[in-house]
Design goal:
Two copies of one chain form a homodimer. Chain A is mostly helical. Chain A is built from nine helices and five strands. Chain A has two domains: 60 residues, Orthogonal Bundle (Arc Repressor Mutant, subunit A); 161 residues, GntR ligand-binding domain-like (Four Helix Bundle (Hemerythrin (Met), subunit A), Up-down Bundle), CATH 1.20.120. In chain A, the strands form two sheets. Chain A has a three-stranded antiparallel β-sheet with strand order 1-3-2. Chain A binds a DNA duplex through helix 2 and helix 3.
Amino acid sequence: MKKDKHAVLSILRDKILSGALQQGDRLAEIPTAELLGVSRTPVRIAFRALEQEGLLTKLPRRGYQVRQITNDEIAGSVEVRGVLEGLAVRQIVEKDLAPGLTDTLRHCLQAGDELFAERSFNEAKVQAYVEINRQFHDCLVKGSQNNAIAMALQINEHLPMASVNALVFNPEQTEREYERLYYAHQQHHAIVQAITAGQGARAEALMKEHAQAALNSYEQLSASGVSKTIRSE
Amino acid sequence: MKKDKHAVLSILRDKILSGALQQGDRLAEIPTAELLGVSRTPVRIAFRALEQEGLLTKLPRRGYQVRQITNDEIAGSVEVRGVLEGLAVRQIVEKDLAPGLTDTLRHCLQAGDELFAERSFNEAKVQAYVEINRQFHDCLVKGSQNNAIAMALQINEHLPMASVNALVFNPEQTEREYERLYYAHQQHHAIVQAITAGQGARAEALMKEHAQAALNSYEQLSASGVSKTIRSE
DNA sequence: ATTGTTAACATTGGATCCAATTTGAAGGTG
DNA sequence: CACCTTCAAATTGGATCCAATGTTAACAAT
């Protein structure tokens, strides 16, 4: 049983995000190490990393605890993502465009257009869109040439529901979901248009609104209870 | 020789920030452990934490390296801090004011007023102002009731010069330094005024500008070469 | 002289062992 | 009966040991 370098960290993170470890569950080093079949050392390192990511909180002498993630906190994370990605696109406009950025953006737009060409959606296509969406946001952040933005986003990206890599999806209303994601994709078009036109403030505002829109749909869906989470990677 | 919990992490961080470890220096676990008189385990944990903070980069099989922090990166960090703290003050206005927040803010303003009462500045007073400044920014971030902001800022706070906890100071021009810091303090007044008046957008804009102003003075001072860094804690 | 192979070295990753500290309970005492 | 004391169990933090792997240098062969 060969373990990868970051296997312990990834396994624990997935267990938390997938709900295998419920919010509030206490985690001690020794039981976790035995559960995963490894020693305490990688578990300790993983616990500290997960604490840094905000998924675990440290209880003084009683181990770690899976952190409560409230809806308010998700809303806050989305807001943070909005301003940071907004800053990214503004700085893209303010600086010289990184080479290849417009190509990647155009590619994302076109791939999305093809996906939305026929007016129907299933889970596989949502999965594909999540990947396109991830690439779109990723290249904007990288394109800002401001590494601090990526670093600040890094923590939020690990939080469930606040990340670009996670989309909620209601399998019972594919029609409506098509509309929702198509609207998001149209926002992508508008953002690229603003960037290429040198409209930094408009691009920034669109980006903030784009994040907010994702939040609104999350709130609607999570309230209905029939949502399904689709994550990339 | 009793070592604190986070002593190793703090010592290494200080060595990097103070310049005792030059940019580009390579760090291996064993020599570092011997240097600090501890075992490899805490050093390993500290290295990973410092990597997460962006102060070290991992070289595949050749240990860690003190990361190059360019001026562009500092500028980027300051920009990030601006939008995040701007978001914080906007959300303070949008939400119900946290109890005690206005008291703390007023206290910071008053303490600063007293510090600036006589038109002279020395290093001790700068130190005092750094602490007031830290408290001011800290309670705004906390007052936003959005933990994601604090988490996103956390990484940037460890970068030299991008943090509120670090101020550059030119000891040869105390007159001018008085003016500079007094200007920053007046911005604090304006921010509090905007918050209490419910002017969210104005507060946000002021906060962004406030961060930017600190950057401008840093660029001037670091170019002159006679600056001195004063950090809190 | 250059290049390929091999062996020693350096370095990290994981496992286990030891120490310190706190929690919790149980028992004794006022 | 309540409260204080003390001891044991649990748990984390640090140290050392072992394994795996990559890097470098030396040496030999062409």
